[in-house]
Specification:
Blueprint: H1 2-17, H2 31-34, E1 51-56, E2 62-65, H3 67-70, E3 79-83, H4 90-101, E4 107-113, E5 116-117, E6 120-121, H5 124-129, E7 135-136, H6 139-143, H7 158-173, H8 179-195, H9 203-211, H10 215-221, H11 225-231, H12 233-244, E8 265-269, H13 279-294, E9 302-307, H14 311-314, H15 317-332, E10 335-341, H16 345-348, H17 353-362, E11 363-368, H18 373-383, H19 387-392, E12 400-405, E13 408-414, H20 418-424, H21 432-450
Parallel strand pairs: 3-10, 3-11, 4-8, 4-9, 7-8, 9-10
Antiparallel strand pairs: 1-2, 1-13, 5-6, 11-12, 12-13
């Protein structure tokens, strides 16, 4: 009875006040029919030219990315930064990206492989599948006729050699060279270039010239010969470590003959180098400058330079300065630099904050996998990510990442094909067959090196 009374009152009120209430009875339908009522919306993609990465999570659209196609239109620079905690998919993304890029005939890739298990780098399986032999840089192997890269290789310009020598010394010393030490190094380098003509100059020649400067070098600056010798003493001691110390074998001889710079994929296996030692940034500097002068050519090829453990570059002001030049130079000649880093906080608050900011600014593409909340907030602040992206980063599951391509921000699920799985999933949780395959590849690599 109360309901009837309430209904009569509401009807009378509506009649007097001129309001007409309508009742919408529920409708039963299927989701397939109902989707027409709420039209889906999605951010614009990056086009359909390039390599497939996976799917955009919210719209389900395919996600295609290629820095060479986007450069000059949607991208001011073709360089790429990949961030995230271990075990969230950075490694599988790198490998599938490279494998898919290599399907294009005008692509060539260099990888600095700083990870590894079972005595070989992470890229050993891919190299074996493609019939390639990685360039293993190993101090112990180098002592037994292993791979060497010569900082004084004649293919590197004189100015490039001097810059590289300064960087090696500054990284090893942990501080910049003063003017006097820099002068002693410059004089020694010039003398070696003038006097060593019948072979490749090597680091031991520089050490000898520093220890025994000639009178002309002192007369040039109107100083005593003993002063020039004293100025170069610390420099000589640092270089001697590369010649006859714990870092000997990798840089103290002519560049190894037979390194194939025409191969579609060139892998430098650094897995035998202690990633926390001073050798790692020195090695990256040498490889970077050597590649700049021997690998990057104006031949219309599109090149990708992928560096794992790239904080060794970004966190060293001396190495970072060399790579800044490489990145600027490479944009004219079709080079995409890919830096893989675990934590951005490892570099932005370090000694190379200025250089790190410059390199990060050049990276117009940023891919961020799962990070803890504090790290995500600091990363978002440095990279200028939108608030919603920062909030979602700590919740991301393996294989899903936030992609920021010059302000186009989307959440992308990386997809790995069945044919790629045994090549890209290389951690200890692999199947027994994959472990056996890695062991076989390691043995083949050892046999090839011995041969």
């Amino acid at each position: 009875m109360p309901d009837l009374t309430k209904g009569l009152i509401e009807a009378f009120t509506g009649f007097v006040m001129g309001r007409v209430e309508t009742t919408r009875p529920p409708v039963r339908t299927s989701t397939g029919q109902a989707q027409a009522i709420y039209l889906p919306t999605a951010a614009p993609g990056l086009g359909d030219s390039g390599v497939i990465i996976g799917r955009e999570v919210y719209s389900g659209k395919g996600y295609i990315y290629d820095p060479f196609q986007l450069y000059g239109q949607q991208l001011p620079a073709p360089h790429w930064l990949v961030l995230g905690e271990s075990g969230n998919g950075k490694s599988s993304l790198e490998k599938t990206y490279v494998l898919r890029q290599l399907r294009f005939r005008d692509r060539q890739v260099v990888v600095l492989d700083a990870q590894g298990e079972d005595g070989v780098g992470e890229w050993a399986l891919i190299a074996a599948r493609l019939g390639l032999t990685p360039i293993r840089l190993d101090p112990m192997a180098a002592l037994d006729q292993g791979i060497r890269l010569n900082p004084l290789d004649p293919t590197i310009t004189m100015s490039g050699q001097l810059s590289l020598l300064r960087t090696i010394i500054e990284v090893a010393m942990g501080h910049g060279l003063d003017e006097r030490a820099g002068f002693a190094l410059k004089v020694a380098h010039g003398r070696v270039a003038e006097t060593v003509r019948d072979r490749q100059p090597v680091l031991s020649d520089i050490v000898e010239a520093l220890r025994h400067p000639v009178p002309d070098s002192a007369e040039l600056m109107n100083v005593q010969l003993d002063d020039v010798r004293a100025w170069g003493l610390d420099v000589a001691l640092v270089l001697d470590r590369l010649v006859d110390g714990d870092l000997r074998g990798m840089f103290d001889g002519p560049t190894t003959v037979g390194i194939d710079l025409e191969a579609p994929l060139i892998i430098f296996d650094l897995s035998h180098i202690d990633r926390n030692s001073i050798a790692m940034p020195i090695l990256m500097a040498v490889v970077g400058v050597w590649l700049e002068h021997t690998w990057i050519q104006p031949d219309r090829k599109k090149r990708i330079f992928l560096v794992e453990e790239a904080w060794h570059i970004i966190n060293s002001p001396f190495v970072a300065q060399l790579f800044q030049r490489l990145l600027k130079f490479g944009r004219r000649l079709g080079l995409s630099f890919v830096a893989v880093v675990h934590h951005l906080s490892d570099v932005v608050d370090g000694a190379a904050a200025k250089e790190a900011a410059a390199i990060l600014k050049m990276a117009s593409t940023r891919t961020i996998y799962m990070q803890k909340s504090d790290e995500a907030r600091s990363t978002g602040q440095v990279l200028g990510l939108p608030r919603w992206a920062v909030e979602i980063i700590p919740t991301l599951t393996p294989g899903i990442a936030v992609w920021d391509v010059n302000g186009n921000v989307q959440v992308v699920k990386h997809l790995v094909t069945e044919a790629e799985k045994d090549l890209v999933y290389t951690d200890r949780a692999m199947t027994e067959d994959a472990v056996a395959e890695r062991t076989r590849a390691a043995q083949e690599l050892a046999d090839n090196s011995a041969a």
